[in-house]
Amino acid sequence: MKPLLPVVGVLLAGIAPAIPAQGFKPVKPVEFVTHTGPGGGGDVFARAIATAMEREKLAPVRMTVVNKTGGGGATAMAYLVEKKGDAHTIAVYTGLWISNPLMRKEASVTMRDLTPIVGMVREPAMLVVKSDSPYKGLKDFIDAAKASPGQLKQSAGSIGARDWVVRQLLMKATGANWAYISFPGGGERIAALLGGHVNIMLIEPQEAGEHIRAGNLRVIAQVSDTRLAAFPDVPTIKEAGFDIPTVPQVRGIVAPPGMPAEAVAYYEDLFARFVKTASWRKYLQDNLFEDGFTRSAELAKFFDRHTETMRGILKDGGVNVVR
After folding, report:
1. CATH number for the domain including 289?
2. How many domains does the chain have?
3. Dihedral angle at the C-alpha atoms of 218, 223, 229, 232, nearest 10 degrees?
4. What is the pTM for the complete model shown?
């Protein structure tokens, strides 16, 4: 019988991840934390997942979106630490959760302190202006910013978010300078642009779609390595003549530190099933997202790699890196 033992061991190893997943199921609504206010990218993303999860009837309880704004993600991350060991709290992370602690000493919680669940998507972005703006391309805006230093304004989110990093890189590369106006929610950022109070905005496709289709916004450059199929005539930033790194935006799911292993396995399995649904595939297609599904163990390694990537990009943009 000894020759059978390795085979038995392999079979047991193959089914091991399913065992802890069977040991936990949420028994009350799950808090789904996001660091953005209503209408922001994280908020829209979390609500889309919660709605689709309910539609697909994959979870026995509802996911309730909880907005913990402030501190460039630091407030939401600190809230998760307060929930240490809680199996009924998860959160949407973004690239800001990786870059913010690199820039702010007071942002003491890092991704290493949290529990990785799954990676979900990589998002392109676009630089947009109001449809009646005089800026037909990114060069027009940069030239105007050079001519009137500090006078033009960018509608934006937190210091350290992707829109801020892209601005830093462009200003360093061109010598141009313009103001960065932070708003707590995506709806407010868009309203400021549409109202003519600011001149430009970096926005994700899911936030901009309806306004672009309605003809309210014009895309002048794409923040991606290649042109999106939906905007074949709009150049990437590099194609527009500005050789700066493509700043990635990543989104996925993390949990409080110390979440029990059986709960981690449950959520990992839940999202593994979710990303195969028709609802999720349609959501990716409609929002021009890249599928970035990554399981927990690999996600932990990604956090380390992406931290180093962002450390280099921040330094390249002239940012003081504190850790």
Report:
1. 3.40.190.150
2. 2
3. 60
4. 0.76
